[in-house]
Amino acid sequence: MAGRIDARLAELGITLPAAPAPVANYVGWTRTGNIVVVSGQIPLKDGAIAYTGKVGADVTPETAKEAAKLCFVNVMAQLKAACGGDLDKVVKVVRLGGFIAAPPEFTAHPVVMNGASDLAVEVFGDAGRHARSTIGVPSLPGNAACEVEGMFEIAG
Question: Could you tell me which residue ranges the Endoribonuclease L-PSP/chorismate mutase-like domain spans (predicted)?
């Protein structure tokens, strides 16, 4: 039987993929005590980067917001693996970090990152409210438009 978070994801029409494999010498997630840190996730869909380019030049902020949402879907896939398949173990979304590939004149980074933040709250309710940093960067792996990382408190 699906847990309450899996049921919430189904209500939102979201199916989590298998946790994407790291592309270099790092792990997708690590745990210390009751804290899980998820490595940065790019907007992968069906094994390919779904959103590429610089936000504000090649990609609109509205489209990049969808990319950030997809990044958080991949963060949740890693988190689910860290929780042994049970996202009901998530006590709190502690922090999200966002990296937005953009030209120097772009300044709407928070609008883009809201794609991930809004989904965290939609899925986890009040436990999804989190601290956050969002920064602009000149480039990301694979020319991804954005990347999202996270820190979570889990039970047990």
Answer: 7-149
Domain of 46 in residue numbering reads as 4-17+29-154
For residue 81, the one-letter residue type is A
Q: b or e along 117-140 (b: 16 or more beta carbons within 10 Å of the residue's beta carbon)?
A: bebbebbbeebbebebebebeeeb
Q: Work out the burial of residue 64: count CB atoms within 10 Å of its CB; fewer than 13 is exposed, 13-18 middle, 19 or more buried.
A: buried
- CATH classification of the domain holding 44: 3.30.1330.40
pTM tops 0.90:
yes
Q: What domain count does the chain have? A: 1
Residue pLDDT, tens place only, 25-65: 999 999 999 999 999 999 999 999 999 999 999 999 999 99
Q: What angle do CA 39, 40, 44 make, to 5 degrees?
A: 120
The letter for the amino acid at 129 is R
Query: In whole angstroms, what is the distance from residue 116 CA to residue 144 CA?
Result: 15
